């Protein structure tokens, strides 16, 4: 499968300056920008900067960023699912994971999360993919936001809807481990019924187990 990547950008006026949301960016472009110190949800900021640079170099890898001048204050990643996860077992070339979306704590409330997803879906190539993300409450910044799991989940759902991702059921044990955990999915317009069925089989791998 050919992975086409068409660059898009949008500018947003915010109280702290002009927020530029753009991508997909190349590894070389990402390396030229600063990475905000507050982007630490998954690993220390410097290591996460290196991780997104590496993802951008993958054939299917897509990185969309939100930046203020030369500083990246938010990003979203798209790539093939981890080979050790159930979602890779179907070996589907048209299934990609929204692996991470993060906005630095001091720049939240500017609409950056929604903007990242909106710009991500502007590329027509996204209509060739089933896009999914798995959300686990133990990764959420409940302390920083002051929200409980249900309040956070509600805000998360609204943000993801800007990229047309919707809730889908699954028997994945980690998602089933807590009622706030969830699977969100977007089916591209050019996804056929065969691919949908294959993805359904990944969603429900335990239906015939007793």
TrEMBL record:
Task: Kindly state a single biological-process term from the GO annotations of this entry.
Answer: acetoin catabolic process
What are the recorded GO MF terms, alphabetically? acetoin dehydrogenase (NAD+) activity; acyltransferase activity, transferring groups other than amino-acyl groups
InterPro entries, from UniProt? Answer: AcuA, Acyl_CoA_acyltransferase, GNAT_dom
Stored SUPFAM superfamilies: Acyl-CoA N-acyltransferases (Nat) (SSF55729)
Domain N-acetyltransferase: from-to ranges: 46-118
Keyword entries, A-Z: Transferase
Q: What name goes with this protein?
A: GNAT family N-acetyltransferase
